[in-house]
């Protein structure tokens, strides 16, 4: 089995990439930041760079230093992006870690509530 596909977040990032392709310019205007999402599951880790600052935005799998790094487990990310969980609740319960620009973290709702 391909371990990479076992990440539910991978599906979410694919949908987000499609959305950014269609409405990226809007998101760039609203958000204006670059995020790194670090997702863990069963000891495996995958990362995505969500650029909502440059051009019309982009979503790529990879890892580099970004203005705001958000780390969580696969289930929590999936729940946050599908509206089953609130980012603030995840943060306060310790399931979501945020490093860097807190203001950008607050702007996340622009892409998670959609």
Describe the model.
A 5-stranded mixed beta sheet has the order 3-2-1-4-5. The longest helix has 24 residues, at 8-31. Helices cover 41% and strands 29% of the residues. The model has no long low-confidence stretch (mean pLDDT 91). Strand 1 (33-41) and strand 2 (44-52) form a beta hairpin. It has 5 helices and 5 strands; from the N terminus they run αββββααβαα. With 114 residues, the protein is α+β, with helices and mostly antiparallel strands. 33% of the residues are buried.
List keywords for this structure.
114 residues, alpha+beta, five-stranded mixed beta sheet, 5 helices, 29% strand
Major sheet characteristics: 5 strands, mixed
User: What is the count of helical runs?
Assistant: 5
Mean pLDDT: 91
Identify the overall geometry.
Answer: globular
* Distance from first to last alpha carbon: 31 Å
> Roughly how many Å is the radius of gyration?
13 Å
Helix coverage percent? 40-55%
What is the tally of beta strands? 5
Output the strand order for the largest sheet. Answer: 3-2-1-4-5
Question: In percent, how much strand structure appears in the residues?
Answer: 25-35%
User: What's the assembly state of these chains?
Assistant: single chain
- Which structural class best describes the helix and strand composition? alpha+beta
Low-confidence sequence ranges: none
The helix-strand sequence is HEEEEHHEHH
């Amino acid at each position: 089995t391909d371990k990479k596909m076992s990440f539910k977040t991978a599906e979410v990032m694919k949908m987000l990439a499609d959305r950014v392709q269609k409405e990226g310019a809007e998101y760039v205007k609203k958000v204006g930041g670059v995020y790194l999402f670090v997702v863990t599951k069963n000891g495996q880790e995958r990362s995505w760079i969500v650029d909502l600052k440059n051009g019309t935005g982009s979503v790529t799998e990879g890892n580099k230093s970004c203005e705001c790094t958000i780390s969580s487990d696969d289930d929590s990310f999936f729940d946050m992006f599908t509206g089953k969980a609130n980012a603030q609740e995840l943060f306060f319960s310790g399931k979501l870690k945020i490093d860097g620009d807190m203001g950008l973290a607050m702007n996340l709702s622009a892409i998670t509530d959609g």
